[in-house]
C-alpha cells in the first residue's frame, strides 16, 4: 500500500479535536501516516498523545474579538508559531494538512501555504470562526457542516460534508454505562453536557434542582474540569465527571435524554445517536453567537428543544426537561429522518483528491 502523510491541526477546546479523531481510523486504513501540530498546553495535546500520534507543539496566540492586553503580545506568538510550523512541515513533508480550526490552526495553515502543501479545513458552525475566516483564502477546500455556511465562503471553496462522528460512539453499552455510574434502579437517565470546559450556569441550575430531578431520573453530569462538587460525590443516582473519553460511548448509550450546550460537534453526535435533547446555546454576550444559530437550525428541523441562556431559571429548566422526556419519541422520529452517516467518507475523499501526488 502506498504511504502518504497527513498533518492534522486544531485546538483550544475538545470541539476542535474530536472531528480529527473521527477521521483517524479511516485515514489509517488507507495507509496514511498521521502527525499533529497543536499548542503546548492545550487540551488537544493530552487527547492526541493519548492516541499515540506524533505531536509537535508550537507557540500560538489566541484570537480575540474583544479588548485584552494580550492582543498586543499574542500576534508575536502567532508569528513565532508560523516559523515553527513552517520548519516542522518542511522537515516532515506531509502530502496534505487537515485543519479543524481554533487559534493554533492559523500558523499551521499559513505555514502549509508557504510550503506549497494543500490544506483541507473543516468548519462545524453555520458562521465560520475567526481562525477559519482568516485562513480560508489559504485553503484548498473548506468542509462545512451546515449548508447555510456556504454563503460565507468565496471562490467555490466550500463543500457540504456534515460533521464527522467517531465510530466508537455507536459501540456504547447501556448496561456498562449504568454500571460505570453505579446506578442501582431503573429510572430513566438524564445526561448533562456543559462542553469540554464546563458551564458554570448549567452546573448551578442542575444542582439547585438535583433533589427534585433525582426523584424522576438518574443523572450523569459532565461538569467540566475543576467543577466537581465534592459534597455531592456519594449522592445516590448522581454521577459527576469533569471530562470523559473512553467511557463516553457507554454513558451516551445509557442516556434517555440529554441537556447540552449547542456546539456543533456535540449536537451532531446527539443527532447521530438519536438522543432527544434540550439545547442551551452559549449566549451572544459570551460568544460570537454560533451556538444560537446551531440550536435554531436543529430546533427548526425538529431535532432539539431549545432554551436561551437569558431564560435560564432552575424552574424553567426542570419544566423543559419534563416536557422533553414526555415528547422524546417525537424527537427520535424526526432524527430518524436525518442523514448523518456519510461525513467521514466525504471528507476523506477530498483529502485523497487534493493531496500531493
From TrEMBL:
Q: Which UniProt keywords apply?
A: Cell cycle, Cell division, Cell membrane, Cell shape, Cell wall biogenesis/degradation, Glycosyltransferase, Membrane, Peptidoglycan synthesis, Transferase
Which NCBIfam families is this protein grouped with? murG, PRK12446.1
The main enzyme category here is transferase
Q: How does it sit in the membrane?
A: Peripheral membrane protein
| InterPro entries, alphabetized | GlcNAc_MurG (IPR006009), Glyco_trans_28_C (IPR007235), GlycoTrans_28_N (IPR004276)
Q: Which domain of life is it from?
A: Bacteria
User: Which compartments is it annotated to reside in?
Assistant: Cell membrane
User: Glycosyl transferase family 28 C-terminal domain spans which residues?
Assistant: 189-347
Q: Which residues form the Glycosyltransferase family 28 N-terminal domain?
A: 6-143
* Gene Ontology MF, one: UDP-N-acetyl-D-glucosamine:N-acetylmuramoyl-L-alanyl-D-glutamyl-meso-2,6-diaminopimelyl-D-alanyl-D-alanine-diphosphoundecaprenol 4-beta-N-acetylglucosaminlytransferase activity
CDD domains linked to this entry: GT28_MurG
Involved pathway(s)? Cell wall biogenesis; peptidoglycan biosynthesis
Its biological purpose: Cell wall formation. Catalyzes the transfer of a GlcNAc subunit on undecaprenyl-pyrophosphoryl-MurNAc-pentapeptide (lipid intermediate I) to form undecaprenyl-pyrophosphoryl-MurNAc-(pentapeptide)GlcNAc (lipid intermediate II).
Q: Which family does it belong to?
A: Belongs to the glycosyltransferase 28 family. MurG subfamily.
Predominant place of localization: membrane
> Tell me, which GO biological process terms does this entry list?
carbohydrate metabolic process; cell division; cell wall organization; peptidoglycan biosynthetic process; regulation of cell shape
Positions contributing to UDP-N-acetyl-alpha-D-glucosamine binding: 13-15, 166, 196, 291
Q: Give the source species.
A: Clostridium estertheticum
Q: What EC identifiers does the entry list?
A: 2.4.1.227
**Key word Glycosyltransferase present:** yes
Q: What is this protein called?
A: UDP-N-acetylglucosamine--N-acetylmuramyl-(pentapeptide) pyrophosphoryl-undecaprenol N-acetylglucosamine transferase
Q: Which reaction does it catalyse?
A: di-trans,octa-cis-undecaprenyl diphospho-N-acetyl-alpha-D-muramoyl-L-alanyl-D-glutamyl-meso-2,6-diaminopimeloyl-D-alanyl-D-alanine + UDP-N-acetyl-alpha-D-glucosamine = di-trans,octa-cis-undecaprenyl diphospho-[N-acetyl-alpha-D-glucosaminyl-(1->4)]-N-acetyl-alpha-D-muramoyl-L-alanyl-D-glutamyl-meso-2,6-diaminopimeloyl-D-alanyl-D-alanine + UDP + H(+)
Any Gene Ontology CC annotation: plasma membrane
Amino acid at each position: 500500500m502506498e504511504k502518504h502523510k497527513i498533518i492534522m491541526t486544531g485546538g483550544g477546546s475538545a470541539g476542535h479535536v474530536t472531528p480529527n479523531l473521527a477521521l483517524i481510523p479511516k485515514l489509517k486504513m488507507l495507509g496514511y501516516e498521521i502527525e499533529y501540530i497543536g499548542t503546548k498546553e492545550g487540551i488537544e495535546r493530552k487527547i492526541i498523545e493519548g492516541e499515540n500520534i506524533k505531536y509537535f507543539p508550537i507557540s500560538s496566540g489566541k484570537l480575540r474579538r474583544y479588548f485584552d492586553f494580550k492582543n498586543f503580545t499574542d500576534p508575536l506568538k502567532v508569528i513565532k508559531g508560523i516559523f515553527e510550523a513552517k520548519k516542522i512541515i518542511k522537515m516532515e513533508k506531509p502530502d496534505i494538512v487537515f485543519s479543524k480550526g481554533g487559534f493554533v490552526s492559523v500558523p499551521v495553515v499559513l505555514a502549509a501555504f508557504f510550503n506549497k502543501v494543500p490544506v483541507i479545513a473543516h468548519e462545524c458552525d453555520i458562521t465560520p470562526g475567526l481562525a477559519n475566516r482568516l485562513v480560508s483564502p489559504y485553503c484548498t477546500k473548506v468542509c462545512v457542516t451546515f449548508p447555510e455556511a456556504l454563503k460565507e465562503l468565496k471562490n467555490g471553496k466550500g463543500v457540504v460534508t456534515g460533521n464527522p462522528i467517531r465510530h466508537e460512539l455507536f459501540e456504547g453499552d447501556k448496561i456498562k454505562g449504568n454500571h460505570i455510574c453505579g446506578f442501582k434502579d431503573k429510572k430513566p437517565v438524564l445526561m448533562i453536557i456543559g462542553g469540554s470546559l464546563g458551564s458554570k450556569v448549567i452546573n448551578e441550575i442542575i444542582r439547585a434542582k438535583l433533589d427534585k430531578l433525582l426523584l424522576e431520573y438518574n443523572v450523569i453530569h459532565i461538569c467540566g474540569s475543576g467543577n466537581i462538587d465534592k459534597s455531592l460525590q456519594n449522592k445516590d443516582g448522581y454521577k459527576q465527571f469533569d471530562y470523559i473519553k473512553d467511557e463516553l460511548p457507554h454513558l451516551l448509550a445509557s442516556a434517555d435524554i440529554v441537556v447540552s450546550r449547542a456546539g456543533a460537534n456535540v449536537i451532531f453526535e446527539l443527532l447521530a445517536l438519536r438522543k432527544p435533547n434540550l439545547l442551551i446555546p452559549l449566549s451572544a454576550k459570551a460568544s460570537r453567537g454560533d451556538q444560537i444559530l446551531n440550536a435554531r437550525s436543529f430546533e427548526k428541523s425538529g431535532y432539539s428543544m431549545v432554551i436561551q441562556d437569558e431564560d435560564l431559571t432552575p424552574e424553567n429548566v426542570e419544566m423543559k426537561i419534563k416536557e422533553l422526556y414526555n415528547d422524546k419519541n417525537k424527537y427520535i422520529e424526526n432524527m430518524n429522518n436525518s442523514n448523518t452517516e456519510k461525513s467521514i467518507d466525504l471528507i476523506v475523499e477530498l483529502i485523497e483528491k487534493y493531496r500531493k501526488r
